[in-house]
Amino acid sequence: MAKNWFAYDGVGNPNLPASYTRMTLAPNCTSGVNICAIYLNDESLGNPGSLADVQDYISNALATLIPQPQDGATKRFVYLKSV
Fold this sequence. Notes:
- By secondary structure, the protein is α+β, with helices and mostly antiparallel strands.
- The protein has one helix at residues 55-64; strands spanning 3-8, 20-22, 34-41, 78-81.
């Protein structure tokens, strides 16, 4: 299964798959106070099937205002932006 970026719509619940839509490009946002995009192992063409793999990262990003994970990994799975 391929990994894809999903953009957050900015208005829905950031913990629900219906609030995200698959992107064809990587996001250029990295930090801020709002979810920008998430990176998932999901090939859905619209909304992702599940956020289970990044749910903790979403919570941590919203609590710390830092893209996640921050455990030394080079790839971030949750990006933030300022509106």
